[in-house]
Design goal:
Elements lengths: L14 H14 L5 E2 L11 H12 L12 H15 L8 E4 L2 H12 L5 E6 L3 H9 L3 E6 L10 H7 L4 E6 L12 H12 L5 E5 L15 H4 L7 E6 L12 E4 L2 H13 L6 H12 L3 H22 L14 E2 L20 H12 L1 E2 L1 E2 L9 E4 L4 H16 L3
Parallel strand pairs: 1-10, 3-4, 3-5, 5-6, 6-7
Antiparallel strand pairs: 2-8, 7-8, 9-12, 11-12
Helix pairs in contact: 2-10, 3-10, 4-5, 4-9, 6-7, 11-13
Bound molecules: pyridoxal-5'-phosphate (PLP).
The site of pyridoxal-5'-phosphate has 13 residues, from helix 4.
């Protein structure tokens, strides 16, 4: 068989996708699996978004799109950045892609040379390191420990930057920890970055609207305007508007960087589906009450799961400020054996025993670059969360 490219040698299959598959396999055997592994809202796409796509299709808006986004959507994105982030990006500073993931992929292809380093606070979303490797660059993780609330500490960031650093990635509220960043903490990060003008900053603000207890979201270009020319502000429709399947992401940034990203986007897909762009413009410009309403529901779920997990011996949780994830430590269970006879040497052992013996799918911390932890996504119903917490509790209490 002809060979596959070497560049795929270092790229892994996402552990959360692998766990979702394991849950599907068990379900196909008739087993009732509760899946807390997918990072996907369980809400519906707002109906005015669906209607806008339908109308666009009926009106014949079905020809090749421009490679950087439709003028109508770019105008809606510019309004969003101004309204929600106090950032001024005109149409030449915005690109629309097929998801936040494709924005980041295109940005790395547009800027990274072999051997460039990308500083990534860890734990982090599984795809960052793989995208960076795809682009020939080297991911450099910086630990954000549980004791520090999973925050990026300025001194750790400073120590990670070298003359080869090309990018710093920021993602607060964070996947997988849910940690968010206060304005003061963001300013401390910005102060470090002011000292290193050779480094771009990519801020992935995809969980911006999933934030609780009056915590205020902030984004680095707004906190430190002196960094504006070096910041790529990334966002998308997936998490806020429950539009994961539509594949719509966007970014704002300095003109030259945006035009390079747009260039890559033109070859990598050729632009985002026209009717998807119509839907995105409708939700960005439409009523925003649903964001607050849904955040209230996510907060109730977070509080419930935290309360239940706190009762379990061997687990230690940090209270996340945002996103829809909890990232408990299982250090208190290492060395024990599950009822099914699996010795728990790692978080991978833990999540595999949990899914096989009690049919709750979660993801091991190792997949996000920090062990021994596991990620729970609470983007599911209270009924399922109640059952899942009971099963996790039983699973842990049965360990010897
Ligand atoms: N960024 C982070 C931190 C994520 O967790 C995810 C999805 O899980 C994405 C980006 C992907 O977003 P999109 O669906 O817009 O590609």
């Amino acid at each position: 068989m002809p060979a596959i490219a070497d560049r795929l040698n270092n790229v892994s299959i996402s552990a959360s996708a692998a766990m979702t598959q394991r849950a599907r396999d068990l379900a196909a055997q008739g087993i009732k699996v509760i899946s807390l592994s997918a990072g996907e809202p369980d809400f519906a796409t707002p109906s005015h978004g669906v209607e806008a796509a339908h109308e666009a299709a009926l009106a014949g808006d079905t020809k090749y799109p421009s490679m950087d986004g439709t003028p109508a959507l770019k105008a809606a994105i510019a309004r969003k950045f101004k309204r929600e982030n106090n950032l001024d990006y005109d149409a030449s500073q915005i690109v629309v892609c097929g998801g936040g993931k494709q924005v980041i992929f295109n940005a790395m292809l547009a800027t990274c040379n072999p051997g460039d380093e990308v500083v990534i606070p860890a734990p982090s979303w599984i795809s960052y390191a793989d995208i960076v490797k795809f682009a020939g660059a080297v991911p450099v993780p910086v630990a954000c420990p549980q004791e520090a609330g999973f925050k990026l500490r300025a001194e750790d960031l400073e120590a990670a930057i070298t003359s080869r650093t090309k990018w710093l990635f920021l993602n607060f509220p964070n996947n997988p920890t849910g940690a968010a960043c206060s304005r003061a903490d963001m300013k401390a990060i910005a102060d470090v970055m002011l000292r290193h003008p050779h480094v771009w900053i990519m801020t992935d603000d995809i969980y911006e609207h999933l934030i609780y207890d009056d915590f205020k979201f902030c984004t680095i270009a707004e906190v430190e305007p002196k960094l504006y020319d070096r910041v790529l502000t990334v966002n998308g429709a997936s998490k806020a508007y429950a539009m994961t399947g539509w594949r719509l992401g966007f970014c704002g940034g300095p003109k030259d960087l945006i035009s390079a990203i747009s260039n890559v986007n033109g070859q990598n897909g050729g632009g985002t589906a026209t009717i998807v762009q119509a839907a995105a413009a409708a939700v960005l410009d439409g009523p925003q009450d649903l964001l607050r309403e849904r955040a209230v529901i996510y907060k109730q779920r977070r509080d419930f799961v935290l309360t239940e997990l706190a009762k379990i011996d061997g687990l230690k949780c940090h209270k996340p400020e945002g996103a829809f994830y909890i990232f408990p430590s299982i250090s208190g269970l290492i060395g024990r054996t599950s009822r099914g006879g699996r010795r728990i040497e790692s978080d991978t052992d833990f999540v595999m025993a949990l899914v096989n013996e009690h049919h709750v799918a979660t993801v091991q911390g190792a997949a996000y670059g920090m062990s021994p932890f596991f990620r729970i996504s609470y983007a599911t119903s209270m009924e399922k969360l109640t059952e899942a917490c009971a099963r996790i509790s039983l699973f842990c209490s049965e360990m010897r």
